[in-house]
Amino acid sequence: ARQSKLEFFCKLGYGKQDICKVLENLGQEALEDDVLKELIRIGSKPQALESRAQPSPLKLVARGSCSTSTALSWLGEDESDSSDCLRPIVIDGSNVAMSHGNKEVFSCWGIQLAVDWFRERGHTYIKVFVPLWRKEPPRQDSPIADQHILEELEKQSILVYTPSRKVKGKRVVCYDDRYIVKVAYEKDGVIVSNDHYRDLQNENPEWKWFIEQRLLMYSFVSNRFMPPDDPLGRHGPTLNNFLSKKPVLPEPKWQPCPYGKKCTYGNKCKFYHPERPHQAQLSVADELRAKIKVPLSLGREEEKKCSCSP
């Protein structure tokens, strides 16, 4: 049991020293969920993050990649992600599947629809987390549809099973939500779920901010996966900007001035004046001088003399 836990957390990128220390404190029979929680509490960082923060001076490493191949193989990362302008996507598989199955059936087709939607947008890093016990044959109290999709997504290195096991006939399940939030946070990606993860928000203030800013909710409309166009509300970013590492600002749309040629605000007017060539906004005084054909420089010199005189 100790060796399997050691291997599992090594795959996540944690150092053996930290893992052994936590296992000694919690005991060899501690659940993976508790071990992960303790690793986060003591501030242990995966080697993947450390190598990214401190690259070797002898070798140039692309930003977003790292030297530990085990962590990369588990997360399914490739070098093309570093140049990708789209955010990594982490999908709460259970939430999406149950939502597509109207909270009655675990519908794997819903997961496939969500994955296809992000693929079509060009996202290269997509991960789906599902508890391991969903591999088991379906029971009456937990029906599952299109279970073969899970196997196909696992072969494509998109689906990741969170650990679970049976102890004396009882199923012990690790908290898959923690894996979802942790991987999305470390990858600086987006969480796809209708869950608010309130318990995890209370657990970690950094996660609280991240969940508030990076949670993408969705709906299924006639077997169509539909996220909102304004994920953070009507005053927040558009969906395209929300899913991009480099948001694109919209071009300013000039609104014509309601006063037209009668406007007296001059260059202080924030509206568009079509009668002014190239929006060359003059002050009211300069506009009057232009009408009587007085040179601008001469007029300004006169203004200075007036202001200087007692």
Would you give an account of this structure?
The protein has 310 residues and is α/β, with parallel strands linked by helices. Among the domains are: 42 residues; 155 residues, Rossmann fold. The protein is built from 14 helices and 11 strands. Strands 5-3-1-8-9 form a 5-stranded parallel β-sheet, sandwiched between helices. Strand 10 and strand 11 form a beta hairpin. The radius of gyration is 29 Å and the shape is elongated. About 11% of the residues have low confidence.
Average pLDDT works out at 76
Task: Tell the overall outline.
Answer: elongated
CATH class of the domain at 89-243: Alpha Beta
How many β-strands, per DSSP? 11
Low-confidence stretches: 50-83
CATH-scheme architecture of the domain at 89-243: 3-Layer(aba) Sandwich
User: What percent of residues are in strands?
Assistant: 5-15%
- For the largest sheet, list the strands in their spatial order: 5-3-1-8-9
Distance between the termini: 93 Å
CATH fold-level name of the domain at 89-243: Rossmann fold
Largest sheet: 5 strands, parallel
Rounded Rg? 29 Å
Helix content: 40-55%
Q: Give helix and strand order, one letter per element, not per position.
A: HHHHHEHEHEEHEEEHEHHEEEHHH
Class by helix and strand content?
alpha/beta
